[in-house]
Amino acid sequence: MVSELDLDGGLIGGGPRVLAAFLFGGIVVLGASMLGLYHGFPLPQLGLGPVGMRRKKKVRVYMDGCFDMMHYGHCNALRQARSLGDELVVGVVSDEEITANKGPPVTPLRERMIMVGAVKWVDEVIPDAPYAITKEFMYKLFNEYNIDYIIHGDDPCLLPDGTDAYELAKRAGRYKQIKRTEGVSSTDIVGRMLLCVRERSSGDSNSHSSLQRQFSHGHGQKIEDRGYGSGTRVSHFLPTSRRIVQFSNGKGPGPDARIVYIDGAFDLFHAGHVEILRIARGLGDFLLVGIHPDQIVSSNRGAHRPIMNLHERSLSVLACRYVDEVIIGAPWEVSKDMITTFNISLVVHGTIAENNDFQKGKCDPYAVPIEMGIYRQLDSPLDLTTSTIIKRIVSNHEAYQKRNEKKAESERRYYEDKTYVAGD
Ligand SMILES: *[C@@H]1O[C@H](CO)[C@@H](O)[C@H](O)[C@H]1NC(C)=O
Predict the structure, then answer these.
(1) Stretch 230-250: mean pLDDT
(2) Rounded CA gap, 137 and 49, in Å?
(3) Confidence of residue 352 (pLDDT cuts 50, 70, 90)
(4) Distance of CA 261 from the midpoint of ligand 1 (Å)
(5) CA 59 to CA 88: how far, in whole Å?
(6) Strand, coil or helix: 344
């Protein structure tokens, strides 16, 4: 799944030398690379040369991560990274490396690759990034992958010997930093899942109802988590209109576009969702995704669902390259009025879903499109549901608990120390 290196035609061969010049700072090297590049052509005017070349060459930025249990916070980091260049290359850490460094990942590499590759700000994916960036790998990025800048979040990243992992890139002037996304972390999401499982297995009706309230009201309040030892957990996510705009494509369907509609909860957005969206998008020119509000999800799947609230789910879906537009809070039934309003040509639904019981029931939400002859069921390529994801966590949950406690502590410290954070 490694994409081909997409080298800018005229600069093949010149690229690495230009980069080498920037790394080692020699004007002589730059001159040589100019001659090489413009071999057989009139040389550009002195003084304009290198600048002009830099302008023509696409700025390639690199970011890496585990992307285990990927969520819109990761997507936002990728968006920010992409905004620092023209092309974003993402390194995904292998299962072996994650296992060796912090215990087995919940999501296998194959699925993590699908998830990262589907984010609309990602241009290339590298599947075997090291957990801690090594000198050799950094040179490989600069020289083979033609990376101009390595991007990392504002949390410190230390090597086992205590030195800064990005020291080399920083010294070469090839390092840029982005702000950590406020209000979301895998730790927080795992916490929600553990609570959800605990709620189901607990006979304690008192904690049961308080958790129910927690999950049906969008995770906003402080909760006491007596059983899992991580203390008070607070969700910090505050959706702003600007964030939604940043995630949006900002364009409607073109004239004569064939509009495909798919709806669902899209809770804990996973590779199964990505794959069905990819297929749905392939059936038309514009994919409109209806995301059910929290109350509809709760009433269909239980009070402990959804794990992610409507706004969080919307951001995850919006970040997917196959999605053109979302309805934030779509109705359960696809009505004639909706089909007319959005000029929907085709309504689709996957074979793998958490709850396909409605098909046996009396009020099929797709009755109208079925009657109009514009409904199609799609074979889901992956046998994955939100419950699969939750089950994976649960089966590992002892290990997660330990990790969770450690990370929760460092996150608590981050929030205690934090000051104003610029929104981008
Ligand atoms: C509605 O969709 C069809 C394609 O299915 C397209 O030909 C038509 O132009 C669209 N109508 C409008 C008003 O955009």
Answers:
(1) 72
(2) 30
(3) confident
(4) 14
(5) 9
(6) strand
Shortest-distance Cα residue to atom 13 of ligand 1: 343
- The answer to whether 408 and 230 have CB atoms below 8 angstroms apart is yes
Mutational test site, ligand 1, from 256, 283, 285, max ligand atoms within 8 Å of CB: 256
pLDDT at res. 223: 34
Q: Is the pLDDT of residue 386 over 50?
A: yes
Structure confidence at residue 184 (pLDDT): 67
Show the CA angle centred on residue 324, arms to residues 319 and 330, nearest 5°.
90
Beta strand 60-65 with 149-153 is: parallel
Cβ(403)–Cβ(220) below 8 Å = no
Q: What is the 342 CA–ligand 1 centroid distance (Å)? A: 10
| Tokens 């950094």 found at | 138
Q: How far is the CA of 340 from the centre of ligand 1 (A)?
A: 10
Q: What is the pLDDT of residue 91?
A: 96
The closest residue, in CA terms, to atom 3 on ligand 1 is: 256
> Alpha-carbon distance 141 to 155, whole Å?
22
C-alpha span between 212 and 206 (Å, rounded) = 10
Q: What is the pLDDT of residue 230?
A: 35
Residue 417, burial from CB neighbour count under 10 angstroms (0-12, 13-18, 19+): exposed
Find out whether the beta carbon of 418 lies less than 6 Å from any atom of ligand 1.
no
Closest CA to 257 of 340, 344, 349: 344
Residue 57 CA to residue 85 CA, distance in Å, equals 11
Q: With 50 as the cut, is the pLDDT of residue 50 above it?
A: no
Check if the beta carbon of residue 356 is closer than 8 Å to that of residue 379: no
Nearest-atom number in ligand 1 for the CA of 345 is 5
177 has which bridge partners? 152
Our answer on whether the CB atom of 54 is closer than 6 Å to any ligand 1 atom is no
Residue 389's alpha-carbon distances to 70, 185, 208, in angstroms, are 11, 16, 22
* Average confidence (pLDDT) over 327-334: 96
Q: Does residue 36 register a pLDDT over 80? A: no
Ligand 1 centroid from CA 344, angstroms: 8
pTM of the model: 0.75
Sorted by sequence, the CB contacts under 8 Å of residue 294 that are 6+ apart come out as 216, 218, 306, 309, 310
